[in-house]
Amino acid sequence: MKKNIFSTLIIVLIVSCLSYSQADKLMYDKLQRPSDVTFYNMPVGLCEDYPEETTTMEIIKNDFEFLKKHNVKFMRISFGWDAIESEEGKFDWLFWDEYVRMAVDDYGITLLPYICYVPMWASTGAKDTLYFWNYPPKDNEPWRDFVKTLVNRYKDRIKTWELWNEPDIWIYWQGNREQFVDFMRVGAEAVREADPKAKIVFPGIAYDPEFVKDLFKNWGMSKYFDIINMHNYYETWHRHPIEQITNYVNEVSDVVWRYGNNQPLWMAEVGYSTFRKGARVSDSYSAYYDYEHSPEYQAIHLFKTLSLVAATEKVSAVAWYELKDLPPSENVIGDNDNNRYLGVAYPDYKEKPSARALQFFNELFSKKYRNGNDKLKVDRIVGSETVVNAFENEDGSFIVTAWIQTSVPGKITKDKSGMVKDTRVESINIELLSSLKGDVTLYDELGNKKGFKNFDKSDNTLILKDVELEGGKIAVFEIK
Which of 150, 188, 327, 473 has its CA at a distance of 20 to 30 angstroms from the CA of residue 366? Predict the structure, then answer.
């Protein structure tokens, strides 16, 4: 009997050691760009939500296998207070215990959770049976207790905790600013008490840098947060062209520089839907060209987005929303159309082209790199609608991305059908001021190689000649 007990203990210890060896491989230390580095690799992950009512272990395992297949190392998820503690003082951990164990111990996935949603019993809006979850709680102490309990439970496997989600829009917060400040303060204190080594993430804003500015400048909230998150859905839920995402990043960065403590920035939710009905995409955006919001163009838009964000040199990590489209039976918050079609895969895991585009981006940009536009010259016509960015790798090789901007304010006709054919073509010359002796390879957004031999090299310059760009497409060069 003693021998059997001893053997069992040995097995438990071995399994425990194997589990923690996986946890040791997590990438939290790679998700914060140091302020003094020149070359940096911006990792890209995925987002997924897990309603406890409809999620099964089979779905979870299939999701993790999808991440493994596409070499995605981290995932942003949500812990719902309303689901875990639907009755005061009664916690249901059955689903999440297995989820966290499988993610970290079996698959080595780094989890970036946000904590959200007030249960009905605690909500000041309990009479609102539809939106009770986005009202402030009657008392913040149950919130403190829940956060502290949650962090304590998973602190050996999870090291970042984001408090709430998109509080700058009413659909996620129906309280006033003072109530939100108190709510955040209590939550942050609870995380610190439970795990002083954990990083606290400012809730991802939907679109408004002024929200961060107000909380930092007027409410002194910067001291509670280690990382600042922002979201972006330009050309889906916002009228701005995707190229203006760089202005958005720079605005948030400027707010944090002026009123914060130079915290690292995340864009841990960014996306582009494959939904459209005629020209209509959403209340804020209408398609002009026939290819917009197709699965094929989603892949191109993804590559554009990631390239633009990387070029700012200000974002430490990006998570694309989301892994898969929603099945018809699943409820959504907000826009019932676009929210169902944001995945890089369909509900049955059949891949959209964007799944390959995301994987190719991570492969191509796997080295540490910097914005190389100081070594870039572009010869193009006056009024050109082309966008070109260069990236210099630490080993001296280069990546160049180039395209014709799709959404160009003021440059559209009166055609509102959404089915305009994009016949635009521009020929440009791209000059890199660097001693590059290696091969030049041209790719599309999926990593398919395309022939390109028209370049000249000298001792300190390389010229890509007569690069022909077409509307709705992207050219990606790798110069070794």
Answer: 473
